[in-house]
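User: I'll paste a sequence; please echo it back and then give the predicted structure.

Assistant: Echoing your sequence first, then the prediction.
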Amino acid sequence: MSNPYHATTIEIGDNGGQRPTWRSILIGAAVFIATTTVLGVVHYRIAAIILSQQGYQAGQLYALLFDKGWSQAWSVANAIVAFTVSGVAAASLAAERRVQAALWSALVYMAYFLVCMIGNDAPVPTWLMVLDGLVLPLPMGILGAYLYTRRHDTNSTT
């Protein structure tokens, strides 16, 4: 005779109920940081070449970097690429719940971003900082994890 007071648990959205590992979360966050840094350096170097050819001096380059529409668009495109790649990286390291691993990696990156912005006096427009550092990481990281999961896992989407 079965126990009528025994609760039944149901696992939703995964195959085994395992949480993402710290390894997948932290390496995913490190990829967030590394890709934004590398693409930011490439962005700055290309913008410096373009602005110096237009006759601007070295001291003016950083102040003018984000005054140009093409430079702002480049920054957003860099963020989209970097965060999607980071979501793929976090998902590839997680055995289960790949989207959740990417989500947590994005949250770790966003905490890092907020700490870096304390006392920052960079001439970057506020809307661009909020978009690149607080708005895009979550949806693009989740998109990267979804794309990885869709390609590599036929049974589960989380």
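The helical segments are 22-53, 58-64, 69-93, 98-117, 126-135, 137-152. The chain has six helices and no strands.
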